Amino acid sequence: MIWRVGATAGALLPVAAAAIAADKGATVATSQPVIWHVLGYPFEAGSMIAAICACIAVRFYVVQRDRKAHRWTLDLPVSVLSLMFAAGAIVRMRPSPDVALLYGTGFGALGAGIITLALAYVQRVTGGQPPQN
């Protein structure tokens, strides 16, 4: 048993010595996030993927949980709107992936509430007047 350990160590010693000799100036490599660009806006790919996956998961959960009350003609546009808001938040704020998960989950859970919030915002900005045709 001991001779096997000695033989293994003896076989690895030249390999380790060659690796050390070849390493003239060791540097520490740092990782950088992958940056994607869409329509000229840069954002971290990991954060966007996290937010989109969280939003899709929450929208799927909501649709499956209350299947009779919703139809795909209503759920599909609301889900796409939720995804766009989540993506917009990630592009605007550039959060870390864990915070992006929270944004995606939040926008996915808001769903149709996004429409209500947007309508209230527009009415507040326009002074509460209905749009003119």
Account of the 3D structure:
Helices cover 68% and strands 6% of the residues. The chain has helices at residues 2-22, 45-65, 72-93, 97-110, 113-125, and strands spanning 35-38, 41-44. Strands 1-2 form a two-stranded antiparallel ribbon. Helix 2 packs antiparallel against helix 3 (72-93) and helix 3 runs antiparallel to helix 4. The radius of gyration is 27 Å and the shape is elongated. With 133 residues, the protein is mainly alpha-helical. Strand 1 and strand 2 form a beta hairpin. It is built from 5 helices and 2 strands, in the order αββαααα. The termini are far apart. The model has no long low-confidence stretch (mean pLDDT 81).
C-alpha-based Rg, rounded: 27 Å
Give the helix/strand class: mainly alpha
Order of helices and strands: HEEHHHH
Calculate the mean pLDDT score and round it. Answer: 81
Beta content comes to 5-15%
Largest sheet: 2 strands, antiparallel
Q: Roughly what percent helix? A: 55-70%
Intertermini distance:
91 Å
Detail the poorly predicted runs.
none
- Shape designation: elongated
Number of helices: 5
